[in-house]
Amino acid sequence: MLRFITLNKLIQHIILGLALFSAHSWGAVILQYHHVSEKLPAVTSVSEETFKSHLSYIKNNGYNVMPLPKLLNALQSEQTLPAKTIAITFDDGYENNITAAAPLLEQFGFPYTIFVNPQLIDEQKSYVMTWYELRKLAKRGATIANHSAKHDYLHQKLDDESIAEWRARVKQDITWSQQRIKEEIGHDYPYLAYPYGEFNLKLQELVSELGLIGIGQHSGAVGLTSDFTRLPRFPASGIYSNLETLKTKLDTKAFQLQNMHYADSVTSNTKPQITLHFKTKDFHNTQFACYVSGVGQATLVWESKDSVRIQTPAELPKGRSRYNCTAPSIQEPGRYHWFSQPWVIVEQQ
């Protein structure tokens, strides 16, 4: 009888442990918005009604909306997060962020981050918030962070500019912007949201040397093995604002990667390739699939059971493209792993 009771308690402890584990996660999702408006470019906008529907779904379905600094600190220190954790971010600091977005976010009690361009604020551009308005939001709990001085393509060299000169100029841009945010807001979190979501390896190296976290606009979840010089976010504006497709993205998981290899994300190669090396796998190789924006399914070559090479079957056009890779989770049916590789195709130098 005693042995039966002991076994019964052991089973109860195992069930409790599994329940507690399922209530925590090693990853999260970061959402990216620009405008909350029906009067501005649809490609970067979401209406107040649609934005409210996003927030309502998040609230009613048990998501844990966390301040971005708390989320990133947890991942960097390898702490588990509550299950279904997300962060909400905005780029550019548009005026409608305070008039339309902030009241709704505060109504739902959700924290959020706004990435701003200090030089444009100093120049009093009419379409961005003032420092006074940003200070008001910061006092109400918003995180204000760096989006470069004036939204330049940071990876691009100027005509006849050397690599050393480029590094010095971009370093000055980033550090000056950090200082201005510190002076005006009082905090200067070590984050840089890349303008236009574009970055190359040299810019990533500079961001790392400056002790910053680089944040893009390519889709995917974040996890322990994410590269903190190129963290993904799911765009949730424009064509990506559809709640039905957003629901799936909110539940995505990050692939556990050992490393990845590619020549550079800004390239003149119109058929670039990337090789992913998985640390652990919670999916079947046969269910792993990648899609190329504007092209269709990517060509996959499994070089080993844990490494796959991905390439477009057709040439990519000039400008921005992506490879989006997904696979259904074995351990958590109904959820998908998601990885995105952004490319910027440029003219041959």
From TrEMBL:
It comes from the Bacteria. Its main location: secreted. One of its GO terms (cellular component) is extracellular region. Residues 84-349 form the NodB homology domain. It holds the Pfam family Polysacc_deac_1. GO terms for biological process: carbohydrate metabolic process. It is found in: Secreted. Keywords: Signal. InterPro entries: Glyco_hydro/deAcase_b/a-brl (IPR011330), NODB_dom (IPR002509), Polysacch_Deacetylase (IPR051398). CDD domains: CE4_DAC_u4_5s. GO terms for molecular function: hydrolase activity, acting on carbon-nitrogen (but not peptide) bonds. This is NodB homology domain-containing protein. It comes from Pseudoalteromonas peptidolytica F12-50-A1.
